[in-house]
Description:
- It is a single chain.
- The protein is of the alpha+beta class.
- Strands 11, 12, 13, 20, 21, 22, 23, 24 and 25 form a nine-stranded mixed β-sheet that branches.
- Flavin-adenine dinucleotide (FAD) binds near residues 137, 330 and 385.
- Flavin-adenine dinucleotide binds near residues 142, 278 and 482.
Amino acid sequence: xxxxxxxxxxxxxxxxxxxxxxxxxxxxxxxxxxxxxxxxxxxxxxxxxxxxxxxxxxxxxxxxxxxxxxxxxxxxxxxxxxxxxxxxxxxxxxxxxxxxxxxxxxxxxxxxxxxxxxxxxxxxxxxxxxxxxxxxxxxxxxxxxxxxxxxxxxxxxxxxxxxxxxxxxxxxxxxxxxxxxxxxxxxxxxxxxxxxxxxxxxxxxxxxxxxxxxxxxxxxxxxxxxxxxxxxxxxxxxxxxxxxxxxxxxxxxxxxxxxxxxxxxxxxxxxxxxxxxxxxxxxxxxxxxxxxxxxxxxxxxxxxxxxxxxxxxxxxxxxxxxxxxxxxxxxxxxxxxxxxxxxxxxxxxxxxxxxxxxxxxxxxxxxxxxxxxxxxxxxxxxxxxxxxxxxxxxxxxxxxxxxxxxxxxxxxxxxxxxxxxxxxxxxxxxxxxxxxxxxxxxxxxxxxxxxxxxxxxxxxxxxxxxxxxxxxxxxxxxxxxxxxxxxxxxxxxxxxxxxxxxxxxxxxxxxxxxxxxxxxxxx
Length: 523
Ligand SMILES: Cc1cc2nc3c(=O)[nH]c(=O)nc-3n(C[C@H](O)[C@H](O)[C@H](O)COP(=O)(O)OP(=O)(O)OC[C@H]3O[C@@H](n4cnc5c(N)ncnc54)[C@H](O)[C@@H]3O)c2cc1C
């Protein structure tokens, strides 16, 4: 269940990703305004208007006109007058053809509108090419997942990183958790997180078949910080209509059984959550891309050049590092520098995790989160944390931060053994999450520089004009594991012009152009 309760999408991949089927499950009337795709051929299989009048709603024809690629065709068994009239209003030239399979006649049509509105830019024009080569800058979760998603669309890429190997910056933690969220309003933030968590589960399950040590998908508990009991949590789920295979409200006893250790609070249980090793996940994404992705380490991108539809990445010494039809900025906060003129409201937030020998500690069977988190033992190590420190640039592990993490672990588990551990003896790791002011990632075609947007339509992100061939996927905050798979598929849809795996309102919610639209609306 990716979108609103009534809408879901599902991607089926055939022939190593050569053929992809995006299923939008739900009422056609609810889906049609939300599909982001440029369509070459429509097949309308909705019975006759007499039998199924809801399907042949005027909104169907309006959506077809919006999605039709130049010269798009349409075909249907129905020869009803209302169908032909509807197609004509959507800019199709309509003809009858002899039928097949016992049908006397069928209707065929070709999109040839007299007027094409300028304000709606073609997705394929914004896209670099249907098949091409991309240079991805940054080999963390964002960059490596993008390499996989682009390979699924038939693209090749070079992934470059300033560090010698992938996942040596923020994505280098030994393990981290992933899960959805619940919010009474079920707004864009909750819906995007739900879509991303469900996609993460599906993609990780497939990767785990190749390497079962990548992580675990046995569920996750999130203790409720507001002191509500399980009945109150369940009442919220009934009100939001979320299904139990996504989230359940459990009391302290049920939570204890799930965790395999005594817990003292009601909790949200996410059956499809879990934990993963981010660095291994990065390598697994690159391995899935196979021969379509090449990694180049020790290569810091200093500047970008574009000429004749090709992009070139140069290093500090002016040497060319890589070139391609498109650039994907997946380099955390440094994307702001490379996308000249970018002013996306994104801040670095320091975080420190702590590591201790798991011997003698009661650890859960599945991740337990709340204020901080506690993972099951990974390679004999207890992993717990993390701190959240904006405006802090200290790269060293600090004892005071270990003490903070120890007290969080003690609160989560209710186990006093944590307070007996010496902070000075703990190992740790420090990283920076790039967090936007609306707590959603930054994905899409990079808008034209502000002066070039003067006088253009900015009221909705989908109308904002883009720099051809320049794309970004960053701002993964504390949710890189949860967001990487779906975010990369959304990014790949931008680069290739293929149908977006998410509804239009959520594409807008994570679109890098939302900031320009927001500023324009505020005046
Ligand atoms: C303490 C802590 C705990 C966390 N726990 C979790 C968790 O449990 N679950 C979860 O989902 N998320 C967690 N996160 C967040 C998660 O780690 C991040 O969201 C994710 O790693 C971000 O991935 P990224 O690819 O955007 O950035 P990065 O991993 O930082 O990758 C960016 C890459 O770009 C490279 N680069 C930068 N500039 C250049 C350049 N000019 N040229 C070439 N290369 C360049 C860098 O070397 C780097 O490898 C945690 C983060 C922290 C700090």
